[in-house]
């Protein structure tokens, strides 16, 4: 009962954010004095409320990701059955659509949650085990594209991630001997490194595998692959999927593998790979979504237990901080900027990296504001860390963090806009006039991390809360 | 009950020295004999025999593990035990967002390709050799080139080969050879192109032996062959030493052990008469220009993680950096030099790798965590019985004379390059608290030991095994007895090797199922690795051979739990 009341109040609060500090312009800077908790000031928001909101939104963002992945698979099936240019475009659009909710879900990483740790134990029950989760299979990069399908390489020094890892028979699609069947089980085991020595670069499943199979390498328009890139994304042709079986428009048996005259079997297997990768992606997302299902999800129930409130809040903030700094500012942006390397660009085949950056940052802001807009447009608004900071007596810090996150969004929006105007992220890290927007976003992320640290201190969620939790897994 | 233990552990992490250290803390009073900081001199004469550690810790018990012995890396331990077990950051930096940012930047660089790489190289990325931060592997057959192992080369005095330098790089940089140009007999000489230097491969002979209880075993004795020399013949007294890339986690902790703690185990003249010497050697450290204990490399040739990785960047990948500025070409390799001049060195001062990148990769290597022990139940604070018995056997068999179980780190100095951020590097050098004052269990003394064996001179044979003198079909063949490579390196002789750390041993093949053991990967199992021990370790090996089947299994259960 208490919960639903405070939840409703915080809704009001978040809806009129500017009201949460007081000044409505009529009654002086302090605003009209109201009874505590009765005029929109979120005095009832508790740690548990914030945790509950965060858990409910986890379900929403993962189920959106799941639904979009299913829509993607449906579109892939249409395309494989009839690989027209129109269906090809629709398949690519479905992939881009699928990335939108998933990007906003990434703030649920780096906090010992299902995405990083979900696995089955020997008894077949879902459990959390450190780093045993499906994240790598879903979203790992850089991809081992040369292990999946044909590629060409830059002259000279550019090489596959690990020469040792390319199996004797070549890539999976062309290696009928070692991989006679391509289905999700095969992709799953080839990712797990059961048969091959896998270094981290040998990613063969997930969003980026599908991306590669739709776009191909991000070559130049003339088909070359040079250090000086042009504006085009990958340019795989629909004819890479022409088969005798999917005979349409009279293009019987004209399978290509980049070049014309390829074996019909390769185009069939490429289509099978596409569907298998989508199947595996759906399975993995389904498992994560189930774990977060309000009421039935084992992790949802654990995470929202009253006695775990403080630990769960610590996890929320840890995920926000670690995604901001190490993953986004550090691994994904600063290295790409400094090495000027496509290999270090997240969605390099589709040139969609600007969305990865923007949506990751957006997810962090969502976690702070207790808000999430579903793919349907429905706006979920719950108890926020902003509210909690105000209630706990840190209104200035609440505002400081709000403004830090907003600044990051504004700067990430410049990257996003520049890309949409035609300068993809791989060019932004190469051209001097665009680099500042990238650098500015990195710095904004660094600053927001500092403020997140302040919030961690202010809310008295110490890292030992987290340690305690991980220690329990250690036995 | 669960909570109680957890609280204790947090307590002990606050008073770090209490974790297997100081007896002054009350929380381990129940166990003070194992953890106490007792004065071992007892007030009498202070003749310090080798093996009397200066780390201030009470002698380790053969019977009862230390209270926190399951935390092999102290606070820099991880509870991830799957194929990513060697790739984890220390937990203490996961909650420090900025340090984790530097770690992750270093991780990404460890995996990625670098501009200016080559012309000669063994692999294009760090991770390509140190597979998932663990060991490299021996190619499955002679037709597959070595990609995560290579051969060191010199003359019989250990002087680098005048043409090939000190390492054979399998790959070169030639147009249209997109995965790296394999060696081609006289290719660089005849065509002027930077082919890989030479193609090395291994064949094995089976050695049969048996344990004292009659159970048979087989070992693989390696025969190394080299062909397709692109740049001309090797020197007349050529020596070769095959090396599989070692795992890299925990190196920051090893780096942080004070020199005198390590040298307290040294006994070069065997004055305690236990048949085991243990020799400390020293090397000049770049940048600081100080002469320091050499503790990294299979033969103890580098003093620091930075020195080790900067050498690897240059030698293994052809990526020049502030510490190792020369391209991996000798003055006799014109094709290599020509190709190097075409490189686009736009990173920093004509070098392939910036100082910041090098510092980030150094930080990454230093902070990679060590897997906690398996076979220990933190909830009940109990060890698996076989692990305990095996541990006792390990002590009794004198394995610990070289594989010293426990060390304590001192203050871990910051990077000589400065403190790395995401976008820039500062002139300050902040000590790394996470690595400092940790009680750790690496199972090494980091000293050189004579491991026995010898090598006849390298011969020339054709693929039928007939003697030959020259030509493309005339291979260079090395057949050594035992572990010796007969190739002096640094201050180490041709039979000396540095004791490798054993932590993480039981997860080596979880991380890389194709990984094998020992410096050249000849041992398929831990048992085989033990059986190759000779020289100073002969007695310990014989102790192992004399164990019953059940005892051997217990010993291995212990080793697998590391």
TrEMBL record, chain A:
Gene3D superfamilies: M75 peptidase, HXXE motif. GO terms for cellular component: cell envelope. Residues 58-450 form the Imelysin-like domain. Keywords: Signal. It comes from Pseudoalteromonas denitrificans DSM 6059. Its main location: other. This is Putative iron-regulated protein. Signal peptide: none annotated. It is found in: Cell envelope.
TrEMBL record, chain B:
SUPFAM superfamilies: Cytochrome c. Keywords: Heme, Iron, Metal-binding, Signal. GO terms for molecular function: cytochrome-c peroxidase activity; electron transfer activity; heme binding; metal ion binding. The keyword Iron applies. Residues 1-18 form the signal peptide. The keyword Heme applies. Residues 24-40 have a biased composition (Low complexity). Residues 23-71 are annotated as: Disordered. It comes from the Bacteria. Residues 385-562 form the Cytochrome c domain. InterPro entries: Cyt_c-like_dom, Cyt_c-like_dom_sf, Cytochrome_c_Peroxidase/MauG, DHOR. PANTHER family: CYTOCHROME C DOMAIN-CONTAINING PROTEIN, CYTOCHROME C PEROXIDASE-RELATED. This is CxxC motif-containing protein, DUF1111 family. It comes from Pseudoalteromonas denitrificans DSM 6059. The lineage of its organism: Bacteria, Pseudomonadati, Pseudomonadota, Gammaproteobacteria, Alteromonadales.
């Amino acid at each position: 009962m208490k919960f639903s009341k405070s939840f409703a109040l915080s809704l009001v609060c978040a809806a009129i954010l500017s009201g949460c500090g007081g000044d409505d312009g009529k009654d002086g800077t302090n605003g009209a004095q109201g009874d505590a908790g009765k005029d929109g000031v979120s005095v009832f928001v508790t740690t548990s409320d914030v945790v509950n909101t965060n858990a409910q939104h986890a379900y929403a963002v993962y189920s959106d990701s799941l639904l979009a992945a299913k829509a993607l698979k449906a579109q892939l099936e249409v395309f494989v059955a009839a690989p027209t240019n129109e269906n090809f475009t629709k398949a690519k659009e479905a992939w881009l659509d699928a990335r939108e909710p998933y990007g906003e879900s990434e703030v649920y990483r780096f906090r010992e949650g299902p995405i990083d740790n979900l696995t089955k134990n020997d008894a077949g029950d879902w459990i959390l085990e450190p780093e045993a989760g499906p994240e790598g299979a879903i979203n790992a990069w850089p991809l081992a594209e040369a292990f999946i399908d044909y590629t060409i390489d830059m002259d000279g020094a550019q090489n596959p991630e690990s020469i040792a890892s390319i199996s004797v028979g070549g890539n999976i699609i062309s290696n009928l001997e070692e991989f006679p069947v391509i289905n999700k089980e095969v992709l799953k085991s080839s990712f797990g490194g059961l048969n091959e020595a896998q270094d981290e670069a040998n990613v063969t499943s997930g969003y980026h595998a599908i991306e590669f199979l739709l776009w191909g390498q991000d070559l130049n328009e003339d088909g070359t692959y040079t250090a000086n890139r042009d504006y085009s994304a990958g340019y795989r042709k629909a004819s890479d999927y022409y088969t005798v079986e999917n005979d349409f428009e009279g293009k019987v048996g004209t399978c290509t593998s980049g070049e014309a005259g390829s074996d019909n079997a390769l185009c069939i297997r490429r289509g099978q790979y596409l569907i298998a990768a989508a199947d595996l992606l759906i399975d993995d997302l389904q498992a994560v979504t189930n774990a977060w299902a309000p009421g039935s999800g084992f992790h949802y129930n654990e995470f929202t237990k009253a006695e775990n409130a403080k630990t769960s809040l610590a996890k929320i903030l840890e995920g926000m901080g670690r995604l901001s700094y190490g993953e986004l500012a550090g691994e994904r942006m600063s290295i790409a900027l400094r090495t000027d390397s496509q290999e270090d660009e997240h969605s390099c085949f589709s040139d969609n990296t600007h969305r990865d950056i923007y949506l990751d940052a957006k997810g962090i802001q969502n976690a702070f504001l207790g808000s999430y807009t579903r793919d349907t447009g429905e706006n979920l608004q719950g108890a926020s860390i902003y509210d909690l900071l105000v209630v706990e007596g840190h209104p200035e810090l609440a505002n400081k963090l709000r403004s830090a996150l907003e600044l990051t969004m504004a700067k990430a929006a410049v990257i996003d806009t520049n890309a949409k105007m035609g300068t993809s992220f791989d060019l932004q890290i190469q051209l001097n006039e665009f680099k500042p927007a990238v650098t500015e976003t990195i710095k904004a992320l660094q600053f927001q991390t500092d403020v997140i640290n302040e919030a961690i201190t202010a809310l008295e969620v110490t890292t030992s809360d987290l340690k305690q939790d991980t220690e329990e897994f250690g036995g | 009950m669960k909570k109680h233990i957890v609280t204790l552990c947090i307590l002990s992490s606050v008073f770090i020295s209490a974790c297997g250290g100081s007896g002054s803390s009350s929380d381990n009073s129940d166990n003070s004999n194992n953890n106490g900081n007792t004065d071992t001199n007892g007030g009498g004469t202070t003749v310090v025999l080798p093996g009397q550690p200066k780390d201030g810790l009470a002698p380790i018990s053969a019977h009862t593990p230390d209270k926190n012995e399951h935390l092999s890396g102290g606070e820099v331990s991880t509870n991830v035990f799957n194929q990513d077990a060697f790739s984890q950051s220390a937990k203490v930096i996961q909650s420090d967002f900025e340090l984790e940012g530097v770690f992750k930047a270093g991780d990404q660089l460890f995996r990625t390709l670098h501009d200016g790489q080559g012309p000669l190289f063994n692999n294009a990325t760090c991770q390509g050799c140190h597979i998932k931060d663990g060991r490299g592997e021996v190619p499955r057959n002679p037709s597959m080139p070595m990609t995560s192992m290579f051969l060191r080369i010199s003359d019989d005095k250990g002087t680098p080969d005048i043409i090939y330098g000190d390492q054979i790089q399998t790959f070169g940089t030639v147009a249209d050879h997109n995965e790296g140009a394999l060696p081609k007999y006289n290719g660089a000489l005849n065509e002027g192109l930077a082919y890989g230097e030479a193609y090395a491969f291994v064949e094995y002979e089976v050695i049969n032996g048996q344990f004292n209880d009659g159970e048979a075993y087989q070992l693989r004795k390696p025969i190394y062959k080299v062909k397709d020399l692109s740049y001309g013949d090797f020197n007349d007294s050529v020596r070769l030493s095959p090396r599989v890339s070692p795992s890299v986690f925990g190196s920051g902790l090893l780096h942080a052990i004070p020199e005198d703690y390590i040298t307290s185990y040294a006994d070069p003249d065997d004055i305690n008469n236990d048949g085991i010497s243990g020799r400390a050697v020293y090397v000049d450290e770049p940048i600081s220009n100080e002469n320091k204990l050499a503790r990294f490399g299979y033969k103890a040739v580098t003093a620091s993680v930075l020195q080790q990785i900067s050498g690897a960047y240059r030698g293994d990948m052809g990526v020049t950096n502030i510490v190792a500025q020369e391209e991996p070409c000798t003055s006799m390799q014109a094709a290599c030099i020509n190709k190097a001049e075409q490189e686009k060195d736009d990173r920093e001062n004509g070098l392939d790798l910036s100082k910041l990148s090098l510092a980030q990769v150094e930080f990454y290597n230093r902070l990679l965590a060590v897997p906690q022990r398996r076979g220990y139940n933190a909830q009940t604070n109990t060890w698996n019985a076989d692990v305990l018995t095996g541990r006792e056997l390990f002590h009794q068999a004198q394995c610990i004379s070289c594989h010293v179980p426990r060390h304590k780190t001192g203050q871990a100095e910051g990077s000589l390059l400065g403190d790395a951020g995401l976008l820039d590097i500062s002139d300050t050098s902040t000590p790394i608290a996470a690595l400092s004052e940790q009680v750790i269990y690496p199972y090494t003394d980091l000293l050189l030991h004579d491991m026995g064996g010898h090598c006849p001179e390298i011969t020339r044979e054709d693929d039928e095994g007939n003697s030959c003198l020259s030509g493309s079909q005339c291979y260079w063949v090395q057949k050594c007895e035992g572990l010796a490579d007969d190739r002096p390196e640094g201050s180490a002789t041709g039979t000396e090797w540095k004791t490798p750390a054993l932590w993480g041993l039981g997860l080596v093949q979880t991380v890389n199922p194709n990984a094998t053991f020992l410096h050249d990967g000849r041992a398929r199992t831990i048992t085989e690795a033990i059986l190759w021990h000779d020289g100073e370790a002969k007695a310990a090996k014989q102790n192992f051979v004399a164990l019953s089947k059940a005892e051997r299994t217990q010993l291995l259960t212990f080793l697998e739990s590391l």
